[in-house]
Specification:
By secondary structure, the protein is an alpha/beta fold. It has helices spanning 16-31, 45-52, 75-109, 125-132, 144-147, 156-165, 174-184, 200-209, 234-247, 262-270, 287-290, 307-314, 327-330, 343-354, 357-374, 377-392; strands spanning 3-9, 34-40, 57-59, 66-68, 114-117, 136-140, 150-152, 168-171, 220-225, 251-256, 277-281, 295-298, 319-322, 337-340.
Length: 395
């Protein structure tokens, strides 16, 4: 009999975490006898995509228990800010408690065997699993405190307690595992399953067209795929690119994503780079940009596991990434890409790549082999299915 799993996600767009969850769900349904059901906090593109694949959904507007707290000004201002954050935390808890009966009834109607929570920022998993008396699997896709500077409603002790109570916690990389252990200490409920963006079939398609980007190359394109946010490092990419473009005008920088773009656009204008920097907004299919790119940049610090890097590697494109978080797990310096810590290093590696097409192509080929051996959707789904089996005896 199929294992009935309720997946819970906190946002509606098809950004990295939701795209990864979608790929995982479809493969578990196809190959591992899982019957998925998805609860979303908001309607939107993900709901549309799930419906198109015949995956049942329900929208229940719960709220996250993590966010960034703003603290500035003098002592009086900071006291008032902490008081406002406390009020927000209380209101969030009250809101989610009010929704808990609906969540419980929904899951009971679906005869759910297991809950799968898709992010660290979702705090309703523990209370819901205890009310239902079903196992909780918690997918941790972020390094929330270092990367986003988030705080938890109720404090980190609450987060630690809920993590320890989960039947299984799935970090997407060794870096996320190590971050979790720094919070909860040594436990036996943590199981690393590396996130993966591509199926074996898609990887083969990408292999077949990988060489086309290097034919008749007249302009070398750097690409960054990321939400615009200070933590993602778009300003750092622009600063480095300005130096590269001055030495090699046959270069272009593409910054794809939505979010807080004003500071980036202003810096592009100040540096006179309007004709050499593209901001196409959110790209629904990243391969439309990857197919034309020659090097991908990952300027985010403390990245949990960069889907953008993995999609680049699968496409046969080398990546230059910040040497923090999980990025050193993905990139072999000088072999499949480069790691940097300063803007000077970033600019140096970007210039070297733009002048060495043969070397770039060779790095990309190595990168594709790494993805094929370790980062396919099939491997990810098998790992998650094994976790399900360990906590339920089914699957």
């Amino acid at each position: 009999m199929a294992l009935r799993v309720a997946y819970i996600t906190h946002y509606s767009e098809l950004f990295g975490a939701n795209r990864s969850m979608l790929g995982l769900i479809l493969e578990l349904k196809r190959a591992h006898d899982v019957e998925p059901f998805v609860i979303l906090a908001k309607d939107g593109p993900l709901a549309t995509e799930l419906k198109a694949h015949g995956i049942p959904i329900k929208v229940i507007p719960f709220v996250s228990w993590m966010r960034k707290h703003v603290s500035m000004g003098g002592p009086h201002h900071r006291i008032m800010q902490r008081w406002r954050q406390w009020k927000i935390s209380r209101a969030n808890d009250h809101h989610n408690a009010h929704l808990l009966p609906e969540l419980v009834a929904t899951c009971r109607d679906r005869k759910v065997d297991l809950l799968h929570i898709n992010s660290s920022v979702i705090g309703i998993g523990g209370p819901l699993s205890r009310a239902l008396n079903v196992p909780l699997v918690w997918h941790i896709r972020e390094i929330p405190f270092k990367h986003y500077e988030f705080k938890v409603d109720g404090g980190i002790a609450r987060y630690r307690s809920e993590l320890r109570k989960a039947n299984a916690v799935i970090p997407v990389s060794d870096a996320v595992r190590d971050d979790l252990r720094s919070i909860i200490g040594p436990t036996d409920n943590v199981h690393v399953v590396r996130n993966a963006p591509v199926s074996g079939a898609l990887l083969q398609t990408l292999r077949e067209k990988a060489n086309k980007r290097w034919e008749g190359l007249k302009e070398f394109r750097f690409l960054q795929l990321a939400l615009f946010h200070p933590s993602k490092g778009q300003l750092e990419a622009v600063e480095a690119f300005a130096r590269v473009h001055q030495k090699n005008p046959a270069t272009r920088l593409v910054l794809a994503g939505i979010g807080r773009q004003d500071a980036v656009k202003q810096r592009v204008r100040e540096l006179g780079l309007e004709a050499a920097v593209d901001l196409p907004g959110f790209v629904e299919d990243p391969y439309t940009e990857l197919d034309r790119a020659h090097c991908v940049l990952q300027c985010s610090k403390y990245e949990a596991l960069s889907r953008a890097i993995l999609e680049a590697m699968a496409s046969g494109i080398p990546a230059i990434g910040h040497a923090s978080g999980s990025t050193p797990e993905l990139i072999k310096p000088g072999v499949s890409g480069e790691l940097y810590t300063t803007v000077d290093q970033l600019a140096q590696y970007m210039e070297e790549r733009s002048r060495d097409v043969v070397g770039c192509k060779a790095m990309g080929q190595v990168a594709q082999g790494i993805v094929a051996g370790r980062y396919t959707i099939e491997a990810m789904a098998k790992g998650v299915s094994n976790v399900y089996r360990s906590v339920t005896g089914k699957g």
